[in-house]
C-alpha cells in the first residue's frame, strides 16, 4: 500500500519499483492515514 497525500508521489513510487520482482502483484493507494486504515480492512497489505 502506498500512502502519501501527493498523487504525483504515489504514482512515482508505483512506477519506479519493479513490484513483481518482490512478489507483489496488487498495489493499492491511499491519500492519507484515515483512507489507508479504511482500505486495509478489505486489502491486507504486505508492505505499507
From TrEMBL:
Residues 1-48 form the Response regulatory domain. This is Stage 0 sporulation protein A homolog. SUPFAM superfamilies: CheY-like. Gene3D superfamilies: 3.40.50.2300. May play the central regulatory role in sporulation. It may be an element of the effector pathway responsible for the activation of sporulation genes in response to nutritional stress. Spo0A may act in concert with spo0H (a sigma factor) to control the expression of some genes that are critical to the sporulation process. One of its GO terms (biological process) is phosphorelay signal transduction system.
Amino acid at each position: 500500500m502506498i500512502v502519501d497525500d501527493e498523487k504525483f508521489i504515489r504514482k512515482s513510487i508505483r512506477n519506479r519499483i519493479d513490484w513483481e520482482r518482490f512478489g507483489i502483484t496488487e498495489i493499492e493507494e491511499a491519500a492519507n492515514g484515515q483512507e489507508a486504515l479504511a482500505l486495509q480492512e478489505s486489502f491486507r497489505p504486505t508492505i505499507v
